[in-house]
Amino acid sequence: MSARGVRAVGTVVVVALLVVAGVTPALATADRTTATDGWRPAVDASPSDGTLTQQDGATLGERIVASRNDEPGSVTLTFEYRIPDSVSGLRVGVPVLSLPGITVGETDGFEHATGTRFEWDTETERPSVSLRLAVGDTLGDGVRGVERDDWALVSQPSTRVQVRAAERPTRTTTFAVDDAEPGYASSHLAYLGPHDRRNVTVADENATFVLGADADTERATAFLRTANERFDFGVRHDRITVFVLPVSDENTTNVDAATVDTAFWVGESGLRLGDTGGVFTHEYVHTRLGTVGTGDATWLTEASAEYYGHLFALNDGVGNYESFRAGLRAEEYAPERQSVTLTDPETWRGTTAHYDKGAHVLAALDAEIRRRTDGERTLRDVFAGRSEPFADYRSFREAVIEVAGDESLGPWLDRYVTTDALPPLPENPRYYVADPDLDPDGDGTPSGTEVDRGRHPFVAGAGPDGAVATEAEPTTAENETGTESERETGTDRTGTEGSAPGFGAGAGAAALALVAALGALRRRRA
Ligand SMILES: [Zn+2]
């Protein structure tokens, strides 16, 4: 990422706005207020990968079909419903209709009741409503996806479905590409256009590569295999989908990649895994952790993907140790040096500072937890097995203290998260071992054994400091003081950032808002 530097404003940006077929707490509240007049939300039981499953009781089938239009500039999304006999009334709300660039097309059996709501006429057996979604090749008002000559990529908008029914039906939602067109949809993303598909099984998980561009999937598959076996935070999915878009680094800008739930997209070069800062491993982490924090813990989502993206890549033998540390070090916060406080989004909104400082702070925190627990616990214990994001910084702080069993870690963390101070980046490579049984430097000795012997786990033939090991090399020394001094940074605050309206995180699902940075920011994965 940082190696790629600043690019000119380019031509392809995929936007956020993504949406999962879940009911957010706010929406659930709204639904409850209408329950008194007989309308109730359908029970959302669609699994995160969109496959239909057999449910007890009545099922209300929702199918969202994406198709390209003859004229460029928009795609059509058709919402089709299969209504069980027990349902006597149906309302469908499409919140994104309140945004510019989305217009109502044909309706069949639905009346457009209000701005974002449609009401079923109760007679049409398979009612449907079509929306036109503006897409473009640059980010701007109304752009909800990307379209090029041969292909388009769009996201699935969320809907709110309410019914009048004696028995509340279970809603199942599928997202699909029109049968008449080439394309593939999965987990809230749809690629419209010719492509190859490659399916592999990686540690009990099905991985589908949707190849809009010719790309070698071998290295990425190997990473997925290692990751699912070693780095999955206890989060398993049935499937993961990787969309490889036919865009080169030269003609993407601002956003290099993005994840929605269990699918993500990358550009042509995204599968190469040339250095630890590549987009692929970052997005992989998003598919496991989803939204990690909200409120003043919002920074955690990108910080964790950035830190673990680097860390897991390093431990799978990607890149080298020096560039790994250089990639983690927040020398300055893009796009300009500025004062950044992670718990205050105003200080980093529109920048990549929450990735950069966030990853740096998490690296230091990981080392602190390992040091204070004598290697028994790591930062991963703070994230593993969680189904809900941290609601705020306080809850994250409490979880850290609990994992470390050390109250004094609280003030340590406060210093680097709630002020603009930056901790030294850990120097001892032992703190970067993600799995002691792996052998990332390929010297035939696993990382854990190398650390025990005072050898460098990431540099073949080297001691813990990166120098060539000698027989007299001491065991790994604590080296917590570091050489980096904390630095004061400037106070410029620039830039703006796109938000993700209409995005609802499914309960427990790893749903991630794509955040597209506006303006001349450094290229960034979302
Ligand atoms: Zn990200």
UniProtKB/TrEMBL annotation:
<feature type="transmembrane region" description="Helical">
    <location>
        <begin position="502"/>
        <end position="521"/>
    </location>
</feature>
<feature type="region of interest" description="Disordered">
    <location>
        <begin position="32"/>
        <end position="56"/>
    </location>
</feature>
<keyword id="KW-0812">Transmembrane</keyword>
<keyword id="KW-0472">Membrane</keyword>
<protein>
    <recommendedName>
        <fullName>PGF-CTERM sorting domain-containing protein</fullName>
    </recommendedName>
</protein>
<feature type="compositionally biased region" description="Low complexity">
    <location>
        <begin position="467"/>
        <end position="482"/>
    </location>
</feature>
<feature type="compositionally biased region" description="Basic and acidic residues">
    <location>
        <begin position="484"/>
        <end position="495"/>
    </location>
</feature>
<dbReference type="InterPro" id="IPR027268">
    <property type="entry name" value="Peptidase_M4/M1_CTD_sf"/>
</dbReference>
<keyword id="KW-1133">Transmembrane helix</keyword>
<feature type="region of interest" description="Disordered">
    <location>
        <begin position="420"/>
        <end position="505"/>
    </location>
</feature>
